[in-house]
Give the backbone structure.
Amino acid sequence: MSLRSRYKPALSLVELAVLVAGMALYLGLTSYQLHLPGPHYDEAIEVLPTMQFLLGQPVEAFRGAGLHIGSLFLPLMTMDYIGAMNTYLALPFLALLGVTVPAMRLMPILFSAITLLLTYALARDLFGRAGAAIAYLTLAGSVSFVFWSRQGIFVTNLTATLMMGALVCALRWRRSGRRRCLWAAAFLLGLGLYTKFIFLWAIGALAGSVILLYADQWVAWARRRAGRPWPALSQHDALGAVAAFLLPLVPLIIFNLQTGGTLRALTANMRQSYYGVNNLAFWENLQTRADQLRSVLEGSHFWYLGETFANQLWPPALAGALALLIAVALWRRRTIGDAWRAALFPFAMIGIILLESCFTISALWYTHFAILTPLPPLALAGALTFIARQSGKARLLAPAMVVLVAGLIAYDVQADVRYHTVLQASGGYAAHSDASYELARVLQREAAGPVVALDWGIQAQTQYLTAGQIAPQEVFGYDDLAQPDAGFAARLAPYLRDSRTLYVAHPSDQEVYRGRALSFNRIAEQAGKTVRIYHIIYERSGRPAYIVLKAD
């Protein structure tokens, strides 16, 4: 990273115009038709305790783990490896705007706006004003960034905010040696790890990039041939950094003292994950992840919005910028000083995260890459500014670079608009379908007794959309995706004795936990009941989304 010790002066009018334009673009693209697509299960599950707290309902906590403070019960985690950050951050939004889907989504949109500003600050410190403008404006329209921000709780987009905040603080500590910057960076890294364990990728990528890009300086320092490449750490500074890192992990530590859940999840899924991913199949996983990263760059993975669109300029633009950066760095290696380290830093982060992503305790999901969405625009900005300055052809290259950046933004915005257009028609597909709104209305109107969810993807949305009036009981069993477990019949038994019970299932071709509806029919018949379809809720496409059953 650059060795400049002084920060740039206050924002100029041009910079202010860039910031306003980029933020207007971002907010316009993210805030339109916020009720669509329908709420995803993983969005709703994190804010159910928020809703319950605000409405005076009993607060539910994952594994029942929490802290009792007087009459308050505070959940510690959302899952074994996801902290309750979104649960608490959503409080002011739901308190002010009500228990609605737009209120729930405004919170992650705000934090992505902060991510956008932090990206500008980091790029400005690393590459100057021109580089900051490139990173900021290309990120503002980035398809993956825009649509993952709209459903940011679903992908825990807060991790990207915390990563960029930690990078800004770490860079400023490196330049100034101020301990408050070091401690702030350590705190944000710990908070990111609490927010979601996937943040280990960011920590590993930061450490790996520093080791890789400064290897020569570390070796020279160890041999006493050069000065220390980073500020010296006093014992007080180091202890303060460790304490700052551990402080936000206290809820995670208490959770594991109460349940041991995180430790069990890590050890049980180390070799092969719950979803069947073989963590030893590195090359196969790497190919999958590389394909996913390309789709994330293009924004071509949002099939559930109604159709897929892509900005295919991004992968070749980023690869070409990296190739030119390396070529120019080798050509001018005697005169460029440390500038190449700053330019390569975002690329190193992306590459290391890609390698780390081949190991998972869950599955190889696209959504895991939400944490790195600010890095490709940052990498492009660093490469272009480095090439322009170090090649000595800045004036000659500037028009071509402006055309490239403008083209990337234009094609991204075009894809964003097309996604919004098709989403307006589709309402979303599968687990993102806005049919969940109609399911909630039907159950509020028709349920006179218990409601049972025969599959995943039903309970959380329904409970949130009905403000807790309907709380489906999940009986399908989480232990086996492929077939019902031995206790399935026992869990169904008390509900079968109540003829008022409504059972909600997905069509067989959309089941997440397979075979539950078919097994339910057989168990009900053995209990002397006749199962009948009570109601079918359809997606806007006409495809069945939910089937409401009764057993008389």
